[in-house]
Amino acid sequence: MFSRYAREVSPKKRGARWEIIRLERLSKDKISEIRLSDLAPSDFADWRDRRLSEVAPASVNREMVLMSAVLTQARREWGLISSNPMTDVSKPPPRDRRVSQDDIDKLVVAAGADLTKIRARAVHAFLFAIETAMRSGEIISLTNQTVDREKRARPCQRPKMARLARFHSQMLRPRF
């Protein structure tokens, strides 16, 4: 089922590459050895608890969302099951810590202001991401052609991220 989803559904998504990698990993897990009709919420709860000992809760949550999507596809489109057993499985608690202003201040001091140094550029990119809510791929894709320097904004191309990202004036100056 994971393989079929990876072949038929995943390629149509923006994050296809990573989703297919996750599906390949899931297809090697012992949960994939259980017959689809025999899968119960307890099987997924056991899987969740096992995975939590290996990776961060956010990774487990991401994989649970993916498995739920696969099972929903199997139920709605392929008619392989009558219900999605993942709906009865609780997800790991979300991250309870966010970066504090004190953490940011320490990073800025540690990185220094010399933008010829990679550490300083990384911290500035981090600050830029915090201010604009842009993802790393969006930041990396910024060019002179994609930024309106007069408005200090970049129009978003994807409906999911339909907003204008406002920039700090110091972040828009030439790198070197």
Distance between the termini: 51 Å
Largest sheet: 2 strands, antiparallel
Largest sheet: spatial strand order: 1-2
What value does the average pLDDT take? 86
Order of helices and strands: HHHHHHHEE
Number of beta-strand segments: 2
Radius of gyration: 21 Å
Shape: elongated
* Classification by helices and strands: mainly alpha
Helix content: 40-55%
Ranges where pLDDT stays below 50 over 5 or more residues in a row are: 160-170
Percentage of residues in strands: under 5%
The DSSP helix count reads: 7
Describe the overall structure.
The protein is mainly α. It contains 7 helices and 2 strands, in the order αααααααββ. It has a two-stranded antiparallel sheet with strand order 1-2. A hairpin with an 8-residue loop joins β1 and β2. The protein starts with a helix and ends in a 10-residue tail after the last strand. The model is unreliable at about 160-170 (pLDDT under 50).
Topology:
Elements: H1 2-8, H2 16-27, H3 41-52, H4 57-76, H5 101-111, H6 118-132, H7 136-140, E1 153-155, E2 164-166
Antiparallel strand pairs: 1-2
Helix pairs in contact: 1-2, 5-6
